[in-house]
Amino acid sequence: MARDLAGFALPFVTRGTPSRLDGRGAAATNDMAPFLKEHTMPQTPPLAIERYIATVDRAIADEAVLEELVDIFAPNAVVQLDDTPVRGSRAIRELYRDFIAIHVEAKHFWNATVLPDGRQRAEWACAARMSDGSLVTVAGLEHATVGTDDRIVDLRNELTRPPA
Fold first, then answer.
1. Which pLDDT belongs to residue 6?
2. Taking the CB of the first residue and of the last residue of the chain, which one, N or C, has fewer CB atoms within 10 A?
3. What is the mean pLDDT of the chain?
């Protein structure tokens, strides 16, 4: 039988099988089994910045998702992916229409958090196939200010690894 640092006996827990190795052998049942049933933890809704990144990949795969992507932003939002910010739904739609046009497929990976000032931050990396057939990888940081309606009002991108 296993023991913890204080010398107390520890049962081995394996779901659905006898698991207590305390001399009663394989016929023993797990006394904790009723408490160890599969439970699903409540899922926290994704952050706006996470919805945005995931929707970019979906929009590249299916241009019909473009309007869903634009709807993640407030009507008068500012998006700055490079040195030139754009403002408003029409300009954001055009920015992402052009962005989608040069990609065939993309897969982003990210870690997101909420900063103490309330902004959302995502450290991201992406592998993509471009419309000319080339493959690229790129990485960066994005910061989003989100309104009370959970829509992005300001999005700033900083590349930490330029496309290569």
1. 45
2. C
3. 84
The tally of CA atoms less than 13 A away on the side-chain side of residue 74 is 15
Single-letter code of the amino acid located at 31:
D
Q: What angle is formed at CA 30 by the lines to CA 29 and CA 35, rounded to 5 degrees?
A: 140
Alpha carbon distance 88, 11 (integer Å): 60
| Angstrom distance (rounded) from CA 19 to CA 25 | 9
> What predicted TM-score, i.e. pTM, was given to this entire model?
0.74
**Domain-wise residue ranges, the chain:** 1-39, 48-161
Gyration radius from the chain CA atoms: 24
d(CA 4, CA 116) in angstroms, rounded, equals 39
